[in-house]
Specification:
270 residues; alpha/beta; D-Maltodextrin-Binding Protein, domain 2; 2 domains; nine-stranded mixed beta sheet; two-stranded parallel ribbon; 11 strands; 23% strand
Length: 270
Amino acid sequence: MRKIKTMIVGTAMLALCAVTAQAEKIVVEGSTTVLPIAQRAAELFMEKKPSADISVRGGGSGVGIASIIDGTCDIADSSRPIKDTELDKAAALGKDIKAHIVAMDGIALIVHPSNGVSALTKQQVKEIYTGKISNWSKLGGENKKIVVISRDTSSGTFEAFGELALDKQKVRPDALMQASNQAIASTVAKTPDAIGYVGLGFLDSSVKALDIDGVTPSKESVLTGKYVIGRPLFMYTNGAPKGMAKDFLDFIKSSEGQSMVEGEGFVPLE
């Protein structure tokens, strides 16, 4: 009898542990711009709280927002504000989507390091991406066709860039569409005549960031508003965050979390 009782107690404890483990698990999904922040934050948070189980994946801002509306993730990463149509869809499903700004960012225009062009105006950027300028010679560079690289349409960076830099005009049809910031940076690094755009956290020596309207994309110029292609980065939850999701967001917004944001190349909130 004692053996059976012990087995029952042991089984109950295992079940309790399983429930506890499940309660400690959260899924974060969405923007590839926010992805480095979410991944590093998850690593640090799980070091502090070993019982936490945080799964982080990309897919794009649109994917993340669709997932939070459908209930397949706990936190949606986005590099753009949620749309009214998305809020309407969420409301129709009984969801109350809440925004949490976790960092600031600048969208940097990048070229190959060998490119002689180091600065553009916002108007020139617009004319490149809408098809009015197609040769570097029009911008003080060599007589070579501009290879235009853009994010795909599911990207929050694509939408933010379209609004902030292109005044909502359409990207030229011959632009090469890429699925992530890293894909754009990698393509530009291998293509001498290319131009692309990425978040600040994806800048390194393999590409050259261009000044826009005389301002270098940097943490300081984004915070002061001098750099004209700056934007907030979001994490969205269904309703006010609770439990592990709240703890995770609180960590990202803390001084330690914001130091991590800066360490990843983005702009902390203060």
